[in-house]
Amino acid sequence: MKIGFHDPRTDPVPPGWPEFSALARLHPVWDYDVMGLDAWIARNPPVLVTVTDDAGIVAAFSVLVCRPRVRYRFAPAPGHRLLRPFWAEVCQPWLSGYPGLAFAPRVPAVERCPLIRDFERALRRRLGPGLLGVLYRALGEEFAKDVRGRGRLVKHVDSVAVLDNRFGSEDEWIASLTKSRRGGLRRQRRRFAADPGLVVKGGPGREDLDSAEIAALIQAHRERHGRVALDARTMPSAAFLHRFLRRPDVHTLTYTGVDGRLLAVNTLLDHPDSLVKQHWGTVPVDEGGRQGLLFDSYIHAMSYATRRGVKELTAGRGLPELKATLGFRARPVYSAAVPRPVLGW
């Protein structure tokens, strides 16, 4: 086995990466160009680690090398070796509820654990004595079993909302909900459709968007609701969104007033099996926003999911009670902390 470390800011695409991405059915945020664009503006930029055998890539890890916030706002230059203690996080920064590791379909379940241990030993050698340990985020139950072991802390932290798509249309989905919820969604849909002061537009690869306005709206929304505990991510920038939202596998839904003011935005990551409701931002009602836009965004998401015929729609880890009223179930999510002394063991 060969383990490679790839800085998407400066290194070329790993050989066989497009083929592996397709076979492993990875979401758009795993695209190497997307990871590189995110890395240039991230305080803790992602590094792609690949494990390769004679037939190609068998495993991949998205790794954030994280530093205490007391120092720099931005990342050090590529190739800079950290001198202060730090830790590494295996995660996909903008894919809520999904892990930062993936395996080729030909890898049997019994071989995942040895591959993870090989990765940990290589990471420890690569990053040096300052590495305190590794934190795996957003693991499903199967991957949580693979990282368990002596001296490792594996904990159920929360859940990701998953809606199993067994519907032929969004109307069938609405009909499956409780009487009060389906009545509210239908009234709201009619109200928005008849509102001349609201412009609703959605689609893939949109070229008509002001990425700076969208970035500001997403950031303001997250600041109002508070940062996630121990969040090592950097907010998406206008430069990142300018290119990301133009991808054909990224759908953007916008709600705009007749004056052109952006009132809400939602991104949807396309995928052959599992659509992802990703970034959401909205203007508060007391600041000129509209009531009910979040619910309406779910109608649009399910309209696309049913037309696409995908297996499921996922919607992150927040507001679980609200999402349950929309038919979502909770899929357990685990975190695993692996201190340096047991890395690779």
Automatic annotation (TrEMBL):
SUPFAM superfamilies: Acyl-CoA N-acyltransferases (Nat) (SSF55729). Residues 179-319 form the BioF2-like acetyltransferase domain. InterPro entries: Acyl_CoA_acyltransferase, BioF2-like_GNAT_dom. It holds the Pfam family Acetyltransf_6. Gene3D superfamilies: 3.40.630.30. This is BioF2-like acetyltransferase domain-containing protein. It comes from Amycolatopsis oliviviridis.
